[in-house]
Predict the 3D structure of the following.
Amino acid sequence: MRWAAAFLCGAACGTLSAWGVGGGTLLLLVMTLLLGVDQRTAQGINLLFFLPTAASALLCHRRGGYLDRRTLRCAVPAAVLAAAGGAWLATAVDPALLRRPFGIYLLLSGLLLLRGPGNRGS
Amino acid sequence: MGDDARARLSGALAGLANGIFGGGGGMVFLPLMSRSALSGRQLFATCVGVVFPACAVSAGVYLLRASISPAEALPYLLGGLSGGFLGGALYGRVSPLWLRRLFAAFLLYGGVRYLL
C-alpha cells in the first residue's frame, strides 16, 4: 500500500514537472506533509528524483544549443561546492533546526511563483 | 555586479539551497539571473545545467551520510518516470496556469505548516 502511494505520488509529481509545475519542491512537500516521510529522507529522495528528469532535459537543451557555456563555467563550480557544504550541513544538524528556514524559503518561493511572469493570465 | 560575478553568486546560493533543503535551487537561480542577457529559454536551460550537478553532489552526500535506502526511493523514481511520459504525452492539452497557482498555494500552506 505504501509502495503504491509512493509510486502514485511520484507519477503525479512527474506529470506536473513535465508541464513545468513543481519546481523541485512539490514531491518533497508531498512526502513530508502527506506521506509522513521524515525530512532528511524526503530531501534525499527528492534530489534523486530530480536527476533522471533533469538529465533528459539537459540533453534536449544541449541539442538545441540553449546552454550558455560562460554562465555554466562561472556558476557550476560555485553551485557544486555550495551544494556539498549545504548537504553536509543538512545531514549533520538536527533536522528540527532547519524547519523554520525551510518554512520561510517555501513562503518566499510561493510568493515569487504567484508574482512570476509565467503565472499571469494570457 | 558583472555577469560572471552574478552567475557565481547565483550558482552558489542555488547550490546551497539545494544542499540544505534537498531541492528548489532553480527557484533561487532563476530570479537572481533574470536580469542577465540570456533569453528565457537559455536561462531556463542553463538553470537546469547548474542545478543538475549540484543535485547530483547533494544526493551523493545524502546517500552517504543520511543512510537513505535506494529501495525506499525506487517507487518514487519509477512513478516519476511514468509521470514524465504521461505529462509529455498530454503536454499542451492542460493549461498549467491554474496548476501553478495551486502549487503556489501549496507552497504557502507548506511554509505555514513548517513555521508553526
